[in-house]
Amino acid sequence: MWTHGIYAVILLVFSNVFMTFAWYGHLKMREEFSWFAALPLIGVIAFSWAIAFFEYCLQVPANRLGFKDSGGPFDIMQLKVIQEVITLAVFTVFSMIAFKVELKWNHLAAFVCLVLAVYFVFKK
């Protein structure tokens, strides 16, 4: 049961890497590549959808593996809160690398709140 949970979390991490690139990568690519900056919005959307396809190929099995009714260890609320924390963690690393975002105290305070959310969602 817990191995399903571990696999689910790993798949969610990789899924969120694709999701972050699909949602925000085009902003950096616009700066880096003139051919990409010249794409019309529909081209950017199609590019993002192509990346998001791989996100869904990982996210859907992750949710299936992790969900209690499918043999996993997490209820639906736990699964969603885990996914949100992973999303923020992946986005933070991405924004620090791609956009040179500097972490500030309020960002860290928000992370603490999310960790508390995970704690409370698992509290019996």
UniProtKB/TrEMBL annotation:
InterPro entries: DUF486. The chain crosses the membrane at residues 7-27, 33-58, 79-99, 105-122. The keyword Transmembrane helix applies. Keywords: Membrane, Transmembrane, Transmembrane helix. It comes from the Bacteria. Pfam families: DMT_6 (PF04342). This is DMT family protein.
